[in-house]
Structure formats: structure tokens, C-alpha cells
Amino acid sequence: MRDIERVLTAEWTAAQTEEWITKTDPADGSPVGRIPVTPPAGVIEAVRAAHDAAPGWARTSPSARAAAVQDAARAIEEHIEDLAWLTTREMGRPVAEAQAGVAAGVATLRQYAELGPLHRGHSLAGDWEATDLMAYEPRGVAGVITPWNDPVAVSCGLIGAALVTGNAVVYKPSERTPGTGWLLGRLIGELLPPGVFATLCGGPAVGALLTEQPLDVIAHVGSTATGRRIALAAAVTGAAVLLENGGKDPLIVDADVDPGWAAEQAATGAFANAGQLCTAVERIYVHERIAGDFLDALTKQAEQIRVGPGWDPDSQLGPLVDRQLRDLVHAQVREAVAAGAQPRCGGELPDGPGAFYPPTVLAGCTEQMAVLREETFGPVAPVVAVGSFEEALRQADFGDYGLAATVLTGSVAHAQQAWRELAVGTVKINDVFGGAPGGAAQPRRASGAGFGYGPELLDEFTTVKVVHLAPAPHSHRA
Hints:
Elements: H1 4-8, E1 20-24, E2 31-36, H2 40-59, H3 62-78, H4 80-91, H5 95-115, E3 122-124, E4 131-138, E5 141-145, H6 151-164, E6 168-172, H7 178-189, E7 197-199, H8 204-211, E8 217-221, H9 224-237, E9 240-244, E10 250-253, H10 259-271, E11 283-287, H11 291-304, H12 323-338, E12 342-345, E13 360-363, H13 370-373, E14 380-386, H14 389-396, E15 401-402, E16 404-408, H15 412-421, E17 426-429, E18 444-445, E19 448-449, H16 456-460, E20 462-469
Helix pairs in contact: 3-5, 3-7, 4-5, 4-7, 5-6, 10-11
GO molecular function, one term: oxidoreductase activity, acting on the aldehyde or oxo group of donors, NAD or NADP as acceptor
Protein name: Succinate-semialdehyde dehydrogenase
Pfam families: Aldedh (PF00171)
């Protein structure tokens, strides 16, 4: 087997460890490589070193910190093909999409390198003789725990914002994309002073041990279950917590839109990255007046998608990350069909190797089905026909999650009503993946807490100190 370290760099030296992560390609089960798991002593030492390095990094000028992040962006851009190839081989994403994800990470690093030196406090209106201000300071040591489904783009956002605001970072990428995470961490870490940045490799045990350490802030993008465990650990240690967790994002299709166009939007939202996106469309509410035409068009869209290995340039939809996830997705589909949902296409496990799952359209779904209540994270589009826009809003607001929602409507009044009433962090009108750069949403309910993007992310990695500086009274001299 070719070790992952040989893919990354001939100079990489395997760590001293008794445990390794072995990765296989989810498209065909072929070996990708292996990477060493950070032992407990390594986790503890990384946090200790980060605490030692944090004061010096905090005193480094914002412009110098920004320059280091710009250097990291250039290094990642130079390795875009390596990072994309590793992503494709480790989690199955079509290579062109994987390259776009790495490019998005580069752009995000550059964004925070530019914003970091502009991050500012406030002066306050106090007495004439005094100076009053609110000054921001880095929190100290940030634990950054990131997912496998878009491993470079998500990591770069959190790491970039943490570094430019003066925090030392201990980075734990997902064990499902360990090689991608290791290479990304190596490219960033070698450009920073010792201790300022460390990468930990491993699964839940490594992540849990990290969250038990004396961190000042923990940023996590991933499952709701893991987010809850992190919040509990932080309640003990006192770390601030930034979470973007699971979603069950609805798509509402109003009666006045073209059903063919709406089906294109739904297919994009439900099947991109094989449905393995936090903001994927996971449930669809369509007005009964156009439901038949919409379902016909969506089914046709799904049937035309070319499924294949991510490294095949003709593939439009790759495999799921592994068969464990595929089993969970298929269990939801089987349960829905047993309860009365009608599969319009897909819904069957394919023969052959790998973790492939076909684009699946389910009609006649109800709120009692897990496919409408629980996060699916696969290429499944469950559809519910509703009698009114108000009924669609009511059902879309059902459940534990509150990440994002999309509304397709030609009515300005309905658009206004939707963004006002839906209890989610992001509402997109007539564009399932649209939005200007810099949007900083706050997830609701079980989907998380805190700003995950935009300039406001810098606030999450800083803390504010109020300063009142008054003159001493004149001393009396004999």
C-alpha cells in the first residue's frame, strides 16, 4: 500500500504511534494510504505548546499575522491539485468540485488576511479628562475541529479567522479525510512560529481529549451529536464555543413558479456533493397545483445524473464517504417507503464495490418519517405536496434544526413572509446556493450557535475588554 505520507511529501516523517488510520477509496474500496493517530501525550503537548506560543503571536502586529495567512493561501493554491486529489480519493467528491472547494479555501484565507488588520474596537464617550474604549483581544488558544464533506474550505475559514486575530490554533481535521487535513495543516503550520499551529490526527477519542484541554475557544463544524458533546465539555473547561452543526434544510416551491426551473433548483440543492452538505436541500414542500409537473421534472433531472468515481471527469455524483453513511441513508429511505412514500427513482442499493447511492426522489412523504425529521446527508429528495404557501411555511418550520431554507416564489409578499417567519440562520429566495460574500449567519436550535462566516467570525475568536483610563490627581509637593 502506498502510504499517504508519500503522497504528501517525501520529507514527511511518520510519528511515533501505535495506531494508524487506514483509508480506502469510497468509489471502489482500493487503498488510499494510512496516517498515524496522534497519541494522548501528543494532544496534551500540542495544547501546552500553543499556550506557550499564544502570547508572542498575540503581540505580533496584525499586518505580520495577515502576511503569514497570505503566505499560507499561496502555499495551498500551489498544492490545489494535491489537496483536491486527496479529497476525491478520501471522500469521493468529483475532482472538479474538490478543486473548487480548495479554491474557496484559498479565497477565504485571503479574505481574513485582509479583514484581520481592519478588525477594530470602539472609543466611548466618557469624561473629558479620561479615555474610555472597548478593545478586542485574541481569546488565546483555539481548538478547531472540522468536517470531511468540504474539508479545505471549512477549515480555512476557521483557521484563517483564528490566526489573524492573534490566536494559536490546535487543528483536528476529520478522520474521514485525514490525508487532506494533514497536508493542509502541514502547509499552514510550516509558515508559522513554533507552537502557533498544530495538527492532530485521529478519530472521536482524539477530538474528545482535545475538548477536555484548557482551550479558550472551540470552533466545530460537524454533526449535532458531536457539537452537543463539545458544548458539554466546554461547560466544564469554560471555553467559548462556536458551532455549526446538522441541518434539515427545507425547500418551498410556490404555486406561481415554473416547475421545470424549480426542479433544477431542487436537484442542485439535493444532489450536489451527493447530498453531503450542511446546507443541502433535505426536504421539499411543493404546492399541490404544480406538484405533479414538479415531480416529473425532478425525477427526470435525477435520472440524468451520471454517477461514478469522483476521479472520473465524466462523473457528476460520486459515492458517499463510506458504507456506514450509505447504510444510514438507505435505512431512512426504506423506512419511508414502508410507511407509504412512493419512490419515483433511486432508493435501491447498487451492485458492485464502493459506497454509491443513486439520486433518489420520494413522493408522498409525511412528517412522521425520519427522512423528513432527521438529517439524511445523502442524495435523497423527499417531496411533500401542500395546499397553500402558509402550510408549506408551517411544515418547513417543523423540527429541531434551523440552519438554512430556500423559497422559490414569484410573490414579493410570500418572500417577505418567508424570511420573516422561518426560524433559520439563512433564507435564500429563488437561488438555492446563492448569496453575496460576507454573509454571516447564526444557526438556530440544534444547528449550532455563533457566527460561522463573514467579518463577524473575527468577533467569535476575540474577546472585548473595556478600558477606563483616568488621570491620577496632582500630587502635593512640600
